[in-house]
Amino acid sequence: MGALAANADLIVARTAEAVAAGAHLVAFPEMALTGYPVEDLALRRSFQTASRQALEALAARLAAEGLGGAAVVVGYLDATEHDRPQLGRPSGAPKNALAVVHGGAVVARSAKHHLPNYGVFDEFRYFVPGNTLPVVRFGGVDVAFAICEDLWQDGGPVAACKRAGAGLLVVINGSPYELDKDDTRLALCAQRAAEAGATLAYVNLVGGQDELVFDGDSLIVAPDGRLLCRAPQFVETVLLADLELPAASAEPADPAGTADVSVARTVISTEPLAATAAAPTVTEPRLSTEAEVYSALVLGLGDYVRKNGFRSVILGLSGGIDSALVTAISCDAIGADNVYGVSMPSVYSSEHSRSDADDLAARTGCHFRVVSIAPMVEAYLEALKLTGLAEENLQARVRGTTLMGLSNAEGHLVLATGNKSELAAGYSTIYGDAVGGFAPLKDVPKTVVWRLSQWRNAEAERRGETPPIPPNSISKPPSAELRPGQLDTDSLPDYAVLDDLLDHYVERDASAADLVAAGFEVALVERILRLIDVAEYKRRQYPPGPKISLRAFGRDRRLPITNAWREKAPLGTSSSTTE
Q1: DSSP letter assigned to residue 504
Q2: Which residue, 26, 62, 4, is CA-closest to 143?
């Protein structure tokens, strides 16, 4: 985000790679020049100007480096040059735009028409909509261009494509990863290609940006919906395709477009392009659900560390499943030599927790040290006379302070290891185990934590490697170990029940009545919903973490902290409890 020069370098390098392989047209993702999503940076005149200048410089540089013969499509931040301030309109009238660059110049520009305003998107806040479908005649073929949401919504530029007579529709995207989105994506592309009567090339961003992870999964489909080629997920690559496209018509059926979108035509060249050796067709296989989620977490954490200038991470190793999975993810993301684990036993820590932490470090090869917190906790207890829950939370807070102290002294990024189930129910200690700069499992329910851990170990065995996660960490009952004999089930229902309830309430906005109708016990519903609702203040102070679900805490789900509304189960239903 904001690395205009570095992003331009990447665009030039990838264009050179594509041209060397025979490409005539090279497409980059949505806002590839600026980074995406830009959020309130879009409203800064200085950033708007820098983006426009970077685009012009990119066009000149491509030509200077012998790449001017290719048509290069790149997303960037544009703005209305002489915008007059207007109430209810974003400052500077910024635009989520694309440009077609050729011969050292910008030959066509267009802005996104449909601006998403749901989930993680706030584009009505940042941009003004465009109202044109750019159609560029290149090599005797009419190529139309659109941006992300214009593909997902009916009408707009994509609806104008067929009437404009385009043979190829290129859609540049910044589409974040969500579970099972790839299936929806392919079906949508096939549908839109058929509607447009054109081959459709869908290019998507790859990488992590704060809470969002972009999975790539770029693809090309024929007008009849056949998948022609597909790029890998979560891997930055150049997807090459050799396409046979219809010659442009001398008289397009409808040069004007549609009611809400006009067609803007540009001619680069009318003669057919010289034939080159056909690019190999590649259709990468789809990942399994567990492989998808794990890859998203690895990419999200790795990019957060690298892009924010950190070289290493540090986390507490409790011997439990959450810290074990975060350690494995960290080692895969940035290398074991950059991962520092700290065992912080208290008087309540079991021997297996200590030995499992040691086993984890040995299996992964991360750095490992033991810091006993018992003397520090005792000093606090002597000074403050704390008992009960306050004493339990004190242990977590001493651990958090220990990690932050080591972070400050050694320059590591502290990772919080809590999962979505705990975060939902408020089963975490603010300023304790919730401390950190990034939370890899923030959007991962506890039951999925177990599934990912089992998958990662199985994957290691398949490769002939040592499974990174101690089997005992997977099989033993989860416990915070803040008092003698403590188990998570002392405070929470079985995680399979809890996660099912959370899926209904958090992901689908089910009411208490809906939950009871779905088979959950009344007392359980009222107790867990209250835990979720009153923990909003904790979630607001929790570190960012990669989004992998339809409804992640944070950008996706925004509820007031001060909130007297409580869901109530309907009267007359059973009050028995099964946990």
Answers
A1: I
A2: 26
Query: Which structure tokens are listed for 314?
Result: 């540090």
Any catalytic annotation for residue 538?
Answer: no
By three-state DSSP, how is residue 108 classified? strand
Domains, the chain, ordered by start: 4-276 (3.60.110.10), 290-479 (3.40.50.620)
161 is catalytic: no
DSSP 304-342: HHHHTT---EEEE--SSHHHHHHHHHHHHHH-GGGEEEE
pTM value is 0.93
pLDDT in tens, 148-163: 999 999 988 888 998 8
Catalytic residue among 123, 148, 229, 481: 148
Name which of 174-188, 495-509, 524-538 the model is least confident about.
174-188
Judged on CB neighbours under 10 Å (0-12, 13-18, 19+), 10 is: middle
Q: Which residues of 373-410 are buried (b: 16+ CB within 10 A; e: fewer)?
A: beebbeebeeeeeeeeeebbbbbbbbbbebbbebbeee
Distance of CA 449 to the CA centre of its chain: 18
Residue 251 annotated as catalytic: no
Return the closest-CA partner of residue 51 out of 78, 28, 72: 78
CB-CB contact of 441 with 420 (8 Å):
yes
